[in-house]
Design goal:
Blueprint (H helix, E strand, L loop, with lengths): L13 H19 L6 H19 L4 H14 L5 H5 L5 H18 L2 H11 L7 H16 L4 H20 L6 H21 L5 H13 L6 H26 L25 H26 L5 H9 L5 H9 L3 E3 L4 E2 L3 H4 L4 H19 L2 H13 L4 H18 L2 H18 L5 H11 L10 H7 L6 H30 L3
Antiparallel strand pairs: 1-2
C-alpha cells in the first residue's frame, strides 16, 4: 500500500514549492527593503515579489495570480477597485480581443493551414524546419519595423500555427520545437521594433524626451543606421539560441523532398476563407495607414492626425473583426463567418494576464517604485563615464521592462537618465538610446509584453522555458546594445 505525504528524500514539485516560497520571499522582501522607500512602494514591491514567484512556479493558473495580485493591491490600499482594475479595460486589451477574433476565424476557416502550406511550398524555404523558422522570424521582424509589435505577432501567429500543424503531420514529437518556433514570433517582433524609429513606442518616447529636455534631435536615418544593424545581429543571435534550446526532433528527420511535407494542390477558396482573408488584409492596411499617409503628407498634417486620432491601432482589430459577424456564409440559415460561440473560444486567460501586467506597471509609476529601482541601480553601479551610465541604463531598462510595459519603462527611466547625465556633465544620448532599445527586449515573462502573452496563450510554451530563453537573450541583447552604441555612436556623432 502506498503511503501519502512526503518522505525524507521526496522532492517537492515546483508548483508546491511556489506555494511555500512565494509568501516567504514576499515577507523577506518587505523586511529587507530600505527604509528610504515609501510605504506604498514597499507594499507594492512585496506584492510583486509574491506575484513573480507564483508566475514562475505556476502553482495556480497565471491569470488567477494576476487577478489575486491586483486584489491584494486594493486590500493594501494602493488604489481603489476602479483605479486598479481599470487596467483590464485598457485600450490594448481590446487590441488583444479583436486580434484573437481574427486569429480564431483564420484558424476556423483553414486559412492558417493554407498560408502554412504556401510557405512550406516556397523553394527558398522548402521542408527544412530551420529555414522555415528563420523565414517566420524575418517576416514578423519585418512587419514590426513598421506596425505595432502586437499587431505583427497577431498577424503571424495563425500562419505559424498552420506551419506547425503541417510539420506535425509526419513528426508528432514536436513539442520542444514548437516552443522555440513560437518564441521566435514574440522575440522577433520585439527585435524588429528596435530597427526603425517608428517601430515601437519607446523609440519615439526616448527621442521626443531627448529633443524636449536635452535639445538633441535624432533623425530617422540616424536611428536606422544604429537600429537596423543591431536588430539584424539580434535576430541571428535569437535564432541561434532558440535553435540550440529547442531543436527539431532530429536533424536527419527533415530533408528536402520529404514525402510528409509535400504540399498537395490548393483547393478553391471557400466563401469563409475569402471573407476572413479580406478582413485580415483590411486590418493590416489600417494598421499601416498612418505610415502610408506619412509618405504623401507631413507627419503633423491634419489628415494624418485625424487617422491617428480616430483609427488608433487598438481600435483597428475591433472594427475589422466586427465585420466577421456580419459577413454571411448562408444568410437564409443565419450562418456567418464568425459566431459568438466560436469567438468565445479565444484565450481569455491571456487577456486577464496582461491586464494584470498593465495594472502593476501603472502602480509602479504611481508609487514611484520604478523610479526608486532606477535610482538604486545607478547608485549601486556608480557613474564614471557616459558608457558606464549607458550600461547601467540598459540593465535598468531590462529589469523594468519585465515588470512594466516597455512604454511605461521608457517613460519612467528616460527623464531620470537625462537628469543624471546633466548632473554628471555627461551626454544623455547614448544612455537614453540604450534604455529605449533595451526596453523592447522584454523576453522573460508572458506579461512583459503583448507578443509574449499572445504566444504564451497558445498553451505550447511552458513558463520556465520562456524564462530560460528570455534571461539568456536579455543578457546577450544588453551586451549587443552597449557594443553597437559604443562602436556606431561616435561614428554617427551621437556620443
Amino acid at each position: 500500500m502506498s503511503q501519502s505525504g512526503l518522505g525524507p528524500h521526496t522532492a517537492i514539485p515546483a508548483h508546491q514549492f511556489g506555494l511555500i516560497a512565494a509568501p516567504l520571499i514576499a515577507g523577506l522582501m518587505f523586511v529587507l527593503l530600505p527604509e528610504s522607500l515609501s510605504d506604498p512602494a514597499r507594499t507594492l514591491a512585496t506584492i510583486l515579489s509574491w506575484v513573480v514567484v507564483m508566475w514562475i512556479t505556476e502553482p495556480i493558473p497565471l491569470p488567477i495570480t494576476a487577478l489575486l495580485g491586483c486584489g491584494l493591491c486594493v486590500v493594501a490600499g494602493l488604489g481603489n477597485m476602479q483605479s486598479v482594475f481599470s487596467a483590464f479595460a485598457h485600450p490594448i486589451i481590446f487590441l488583444f480581443i479583436g486580434s484573437f477574433f481574427i486569429s480564431e476565424a483564420l484558424s476556423l476557416h483553414g486559412l492558417d493551414r493554407r498560408f502554412g502550406n504556401w510557405l512550406l511550398s516556397r523553394k527558398c524555404v522548402g521542408s527544412n524546419p530551420i529555414r522555415i523558422m528563420m523565414a517566420m522570424s524575418l517576416a514578423v521582424a519585418g512587419l514590426s519595423m513598421w506596425i505595432n509589435n502586437t499587431a505583427a505577432t497577431a498577424v503571424m501567429l495563425p500562419i505559424a500555427l498552420g506551419v506547425l500543424r503541417a510539420l506535425r503531420q509526419g513528426y508528432p514529437n514536436m513539442e520542444n520545437f514548437d516552443t522555440g518556433f513560437l518564441l521566435c514570433l514574440a522575440y522577433g517582433a520585439g527585435i524588429g521594433g528596435v530597427a526603425t524609429l517608428v517601430g515601437t513606442a519607446p523609440n519615439l518616447i526616448g527621442v521626443g524626451l531627448l529633443a524636449q529636455q536635452a535639445h538633441f534631435t535624432i533623425s530617422f536615418d540616424q536611428w536606422l543606421l544604429i537600429g537596423l544593424p543591431l536588430a539584424s545581429v539580434m535576430l541571428l543571435v535569437m535564432f541561434t539560441l532558440l535553435y540550440w534550446l529547442h531543436p527539431p526532433p532530429s536533424h536527419s528527420s527533415f530533408h528536402e523532398g520529404s514525402p510528409v511535407l509535400k504540399i498537395s494542390a490548393p483547393l478553391p477558396w471557400a466563401r469563409g476563407e475569402q471573407y476572413t482573408f479580406a478582413v485580415f488584409v483590411l486590418a493590416v492596411m489600417l494598421w499601416l495607414l498612418p505610415a502610408i499617409l506619412s509618405v504623401w503628407f507631413e507627419g503633423d498634417h491634419s489628415v494624418v492626425q485625424w487617422v491617428r486620432a480616430h483609427l488608433p491601432k487598438e481600435l483597428v482589430p475591433i472594427l475589422a473583426s466586427g465585420l466577421l459577424f456580419f459577413l454571411p456564409l448562408n444568410f437564409r440559415q443565419g450562418k456567418f463567418t464568425l459566431t459568438w460561440k466560436e469567438a468565445a473560444n479565444i484565450h481569455w486567460g491571456t487577456i486577464l494576464l496582461f491586464g494584470g501586467g498593465i495594472a502593476f506597471g501603472e502602480l509602479m509609476v504611481e508609487t514611484e517604485l520604478a523610479k526608486a529601482i532606477g535610482q538604486g541601480m545607478v547608485a549601486m553601479f556608480g557613474i564614471e563615464s557616459v558608457w558606464g551610465l549607458t550600461g547601467v541604463a540598459i540593465l535598468t531598462a531590462l529589469v523594468l521592462t519585465e515588470l512594466a510595459s516597455n512604454t511605461a519603462a521608457t517613460s519612467m527611466i528616460v527623464p531620470v537618465l537625462i537628469a543624471i547625465a546633466h548632473t554628471a556633465n555627461l551626454s544623455p544620448v547614448p544612455p537614453v538610446l540604450g534604455a529605449c532599445m533595451a526596453a523592447s527586449l522584454a523576453f522573460v515573462l508572458p506579461v512583459s509584453t503583448p507578443p509574449n502573452a499572445i504566444v504564451y496563450g497558445t498553451g505550447r510554451i511552458p513558463i520556465l522555458r520562456m524564462v530560460q530563453a528570455g534571461l539568456l537573450l536579455d543578457a546577450i541583447g544588453g551586451v549587443l546594445i552597449w557594443g553597437t552604441l559604443r562602436i556606431l555612436g561616435p561614428i554617427l556623432g551621437i556620443d
